[in-house]
Records
---
Amino acid sequence: MPSKSTKVPMSKIERPVADEQHLSPMQRKLRKFKRDPKLFLVDSKAYVGTRKTLYLTWAKLGSFILVLLASLLVVVYYSVIASPRYTSQTQFVVKQADDNQLAIPGLAAIGAASPATRDALIIQKYILSSEMALALDKSVGLKAHFEQPQWDALSRLKANSTQEEYLEYYQQRISVIYDEMSEIVLVEVQSFDADYSLLLANSLLELSETFINQLGLKMAKQQLSYAETEVERAHNILKQQQVKLIAFQDTHQLLSPETQSGALLSAVHQLEAELISQQTELKGLQAYMRADTAEVRALQYRIDALTEQLQQEQSKLTSKDQASLNKLGADFKEIELNAKLGADLYASALTSLELVRSEAYKKLKHLLIVEYPRLAEEDTYPKRGYSIITWFAVLLLIYFIGRLAVAVIKEHRE
């Protein structure tokens, strides 16, 4: 009688092995991943293949793989990450109202700059200055535009930047080129938005025009102010001398001592002639008449009266008295001369004022626009292909210099 087979129970070690045989490959991988993820990754074919590939690549390329990796990062940055920058440019010429300066001949022209060249260089410095940077920030919010977080971190201006950092970044985004032959100033502005670049260029052009106009106008105003001050001073001097002249005439009741002296001198001459005539007649009478006769005595009285009158009139002309006409005439001449000098000074100041006005107009500066800013249709910067090639060349140069330095060091060690 056959014996019944008895089932032997599985041990704890054999049971997982039996369960493992019934699992699918995917289930076994998931089970292994749950138990030890690190071991799962190390034992994976992808990891082993990648490690083997990197080992072979390093064996073949060596440290040159670093150059390739850095170049790959550069390609990724300029192809995907780098924010596009749009440009808008304008061209203008700075001219004076009177710009007919003759060319400086010979050796004197060496080192000499024309007024147009000096003005262009001044406006070039102004555009790149902190004054322009702050003015643009105030008018169009330039600093805030450069700091916006949507631009890539390497291209944008860092948030809460200082004025010095903002100025340095601003000067990197503004290009000013002066052509000495044509005397044209070319200005190119960059921003991260095409419409904003156009707005920025127009604002910069407006501020530059205001600056160059104020530059010439300020000089003209200073010259005019000085000339007008001189005219006012000369007019005050003239008024003071005229007041003195009128006061002198009113005090002495003389319109002109010179005219009065002429009339008085004519009267003296007439008295002298009449006195001589009377004295001659008296001598004739005394020849045949006695001195106490009525005719002789009457004639003598008349001669005495003429003599007294003559002395009085002569004393008016010249005497030690301050009121004599010769002294009044001298004082009057001095006052009249000062009045004439004041009038001449006033006339000269008026002439100078008109001349300064004419010259001031000639020195006024104007900004003549050759090319107005236009809206960009394509981004200009960064120049992706050029930048990638340049960076690759730089990395190659650094790599070969490093290899050469390492080789030299090894050779000296040996």
---
Amino acid sequence: MPDQKIEAIQSCYLFSEADRQGLSALAQASRMVRSAKGTTIFQEGDEADGLRVMLSGLVRIWIADQEGRELTLALVEPGETFGEIAMLDGLPRTANATALEDSECLVTPSGALDAALAQDTKLARHLIQLLCELLRRNTETMGAFAFLGLDGRLAQKLHDLALSHATVSGGRAQFQRQFSQTDLAQMLGVTREAVNKRLKALTHDGLIQQTEGLIAIPDLGALAARAQSATGLAKGR
């Protein structure tokens, strides 16, 4: 089990620069936690209990407003982490986490990570750089929300999802799991009806195909061009 924990931590991009001794200390302090599909892993406002490294399954990170409207911030897959913000600043959770599939995580307590960062300045520097990259991506995402129309945002989101959840061959992408119109609406912060209309437009234009709830993208390059075209129009306004 200790070796399994070390391998799990080492496979995570956050700890790719950590030395073996540091990984061993983190592994000893960590524990495996399984969550059944539909389980709430934590809620916004909860006290932080550590960093989670995904081992299997799929977890949705999301927020909601007072009217109950939901926005999906991220879908976390094996090898990725979640819970970094509250773990680093010690403040309450800023979002909710729900298992979309039966999932397993390695939970590393905040105290163990604090000790590892204090002892390994290279790891601390690596973590800072990765968090800076995350901030840059968030800035790009906010720009898309502010300036792009739904057509361009949906095209970009489908393209990005395909890279993680589809089998790609010769420029064609076939999704291996279903993303409902509600799922996509929650990722984009719009209504299901609005997504339905734009999906029909993308289907009409031959940019996507839908069969039994699964989406296929005949030409990833064409879909990316659609998103880039929308970006260009937004900048030209």
---
Amino acid sequence: MAGLLSPTEADSLVRGLKEEIDLPIHLHTHFTSGMAVATCWEAIKAGVDIVDTAISSMSLATSQPPTESIVYMVKGTPRDTGMDLALLTEISDYFAEVRKKYAKFESTLPGVDTNVLAYQIPGGMTSNLVNQLREQNALNRLPDVLKEVPIVRKELGYPPLVTPTSQIVGTQAVLNVVTGERYKIIPNEVKQYVKGYYGASPAPIDDKVKKKVIGDEEAITCRPANLLKPEFEKAKKELDGKAKSDEDVLSYVLFPQVALNFFEMRDLKRKGLNSNENALVAVAAAFANQMMNKTKTTRTTELQVARKPSSGLSPWALAGRQDLMRAGQV
């Protein structure tokens, strides 16, 4: 995730795995260190089954190696992908234009940053650090944060720098630098991690840091999920027959209000009430409002718009048409 896998290591790793297990080997690496293309090439020669790439206009830097380059490198070999380079170019051109719309969200990091070999921060984490600092008008402190990250990681027992623990370490490092006092502000996620709710740390957590974070409180030593109370049957009971499957119950647990609106619209459709314009419009408008989190004034306006003749559109189509109206497309 930080582009730390070297070509030589990729070769030995893939060959070793292929000898020991009969499963597809999937390689994911980032370009940050500048080694990704060579790493993928050596892995391919060693027999890797899948390598992750990004279309060229979205590749390099903290992203993945370019798709077209890898496709061309294996062209005419037993590992030829058969992909059409002309079509890939069309895709790249399209996303080159899309990318321009999000330029202000991009990091200011160079195309290759060999410092990653020292601070070992993955690409996605680097982008988040830049955004966090930009929001605090402290982008100039990025070098300080990059130095702080490995220190925090060591103090927290070397958690892996992948989601979610990468964000836990990164956020604490940003706070340490921006506030000017280490661990002056401690996010709840850091407290939960130190308490053991993300599992046991790979190495012992620094005693002084542990004291700052949770005081005299003892960390758990069991599997965190064992402490959770069963919620499925409770949620199922709350739905009072509205759920038609286990998937419906899970949808409700994850997105309560959206799921309830969906169930209501689905029931109307099943009962053949498509001709009941007012009922459908009311449900569609409520659904759209929940999704868009609009103000009271906006909700009233949308409901008035939705009451216009709809040619028998379904509630899903009505909600979609409202979105288009807001975007000025219809």
---
Amino acid sequence: MSVSDIESEMQEIYGINLSTSAISIITNKVSQAASEWQNRPLESLYMIVWMDGIVFKVRENGKVINKTVYLCVGLNKEGLKEVLGMWIGKNESAAFWMGVLTDLKARGVEDILITVTDNLNGFTETIKSVFPASTTQICVVHQIRNSCRYVVWKEKKEFTSDLKNIYNAPTKEAAKMELDNFEQKWGSKYPYAIRSWRKNWEELTVFFDFPVEIRKIIYTTNLIENLNGKIRNTPKTSYHSQMMMR
């Protein structure tokens, strides 16, 4: 929105008269605070960093296009979670994530023990090129969604229930046996799902190296997806509030 747009909206919705110069001063201060937050120094080590993208439709040059907000949430040495940053780009790609990871390093991050991501093509290689010692865990929830993409509706409940036997297994070896059982039952009908699990097996099963109590926070990006949901609802809430007040 332009400054004049904000001025008219403030008058129409709230009955507040603000000059364009006052609005400019306020927005400049907000922009400066946002920039300082985006570029603030980070800690040298994070135990876990969850990474995911959320797509928004935005109007640009008179056209509605998709843009992606790239999000990183880190778990520091004190066990506290913090949003490390938000970056805006076009469709999610490993190339853009390279810039995000490079920015994290420039702001002081020297090492990440575990990165939790979706199975975007080339993502793991991109992470390794910036943080070579980091271990990548592909989000099991994303993997399940991809596996279920072409499963017929009436079989989806049973299919996902059988998948639980894999990632809820007590050990990696037991999980491998459950995957074999899963293939015997579903392999002929949904071979692509089995191929995907086997192709990504090492990165899907990193969490088995850790105690049972913390496995769930490692094998899923649900934490960051909850944040995504709040971000997605913010513009919707703001828009609906404006419509109601009008």
